[in-house]
Amino acid sequence: MAKKPAKQLEILSVIDTLSGHYLQGKIRALRLAMIALLADGHLLLEDIPGLGKTTLALALSKALGLSFGRIQCTSDLLPSDITGLSIFDRDQSNFRFIKGPIFNHILLVDEINRAMPKTQSALLEAMEERKVTIEGTSYILPQPFIVIATQNPLEQIGTYPLPESQLDRFLITTDIGYPPPKLEKEIISGGGIRNKMSDIQPLLTLDNIEEAKQAVHNIQLDDKLVDYILTISQASRSHEFVAAGISTRGAISMAVAARAAAYLDGRHYVIPEDVKLIAGPVAAHRLILKPEYQSLNNREVLVSILDNVPVPMV
């Protein structure tokens, strides 16, 4: 077996350390978060409160040695509460820009669907362009930059569904899920881990992360796998339950995430299993089902699409 590159071992050490000591039972969500970071994307965590979504984001920022900002979304949250605002400095007789929490490497947007649509849209430019524009002046966000947003179930009181344009900005959506009963018992017995967060030491530097992202960019993607991703996208557009399938941007996202998944597995090339692994988290939320089928689960529809697309031999 080929020896894994040093930078890859450092990335994997973050996952192993956090899943082994701080985020037990959350290794799938943790790996997907790392894929989102390496693929220069954003992550949406969908689940009920109390399953560790916020804890995951905070622990990840500490282990990666990245700056962390948090926004608690409420119905009265304003766009300026996210981006910042200009105030008049009497001493200097000019306006001075006060940066908002979005000027951090990792931005946790807690309960994003409790914010009003106007405030949700304030994140669009930042997530897509990695900059914000205030009164005609553009401010570049730090790199790397990842939004980790949490979303409560839509049936809960006081939620506003994210529009398709906002959902499309997230590379990956996933849930946390309940831990296995035995592990949940241990967690209950030991109490929460918030008081242990100060023990987490940075395991990477910014240079480490940028080198890993460049390595992901160089992962080989065979033409047969490009055709595979294209066929999945086309099949989603013609599926009887689907009103709007995977867009070209969605297909690009699948390719980028598959490269990151291959990197985490120690390969310099993508295999079909990488595509199948990331297809649900990357593409399911991009499907728009027809009105008569909206009671169905998007992920189950996507699984049925994958089951009917031949897997290439690479």
Mind explaining what this structure looks like?
This protein is of the alpha/beta class. The chain contains 12 helices and 11 strands. It has helices at residues 6-21, 27-38, 53-64, 79-83, 117-129, 164-167, 181-190, 206-217, 223-237, 248-264, 272-283, 298-307; strands at residues 43-46, 68-72, 84-89, 94-99, 106-110, 131-134, 137-140, 146-151, 172-174, 242-244, 288-289. Helix 10 (248-264) packs across helix 11. It is globular. The two termini are 19 Å apart. The model has no long low-confidence stretch (mean pLDDT 86).
Identify the overall geometry: globular
Structural class: alpha/beta
How are strands sequenced across the largest beta sheet? 2-5-8-1-9
Instruction: Tell me the number of strands.
Output: 11
* CATH fold description of the largest domain: Rossmann fold
Count of the domains:
2
Tell me what the CATH architecture of the largest domain is: 3-Layer(aba) Sandwich
Question: Would you tell me the overall average pLDDT?
Answer: 86
State the helical fraction: 40-55%
User: What is the CATH H-level superfamily of the largest domain?
Assistant: P-loop containing nucleotide triphosphate hydrolases
Q: Total helix count?
A: 12
- The topology string of helices and strands comes to HHEHEHEEEHEEEHEHHHEHHEH
Major beta-sheet overview: 5 strands, parallel
SSE diagram, text form:
Layout: H1 6-21, H2 27-38, E1 43-46, H3 53-64, E2 68-72, H4 79-83, E3 84-89, E4 94-99, E5 106-110, H5 117-129, E6 131-134, E7 137-140, E8 146-151, H6 164-167, E9 172-174, H7 181-190, H8 206-217, H9 223-237, E10 242-244, H10 248-264, H11 272-283, E11 288-289, H12 298-307
Parallel strand pairs: 1-8, 1-9, 2-5, 5-8
Antiparallel strand pairs: 3-4, 6-7, 10-11
Helix pairs in contact: 1-2, 1-8, 2-10, 8-10, 9-10, 10-11, 11-12
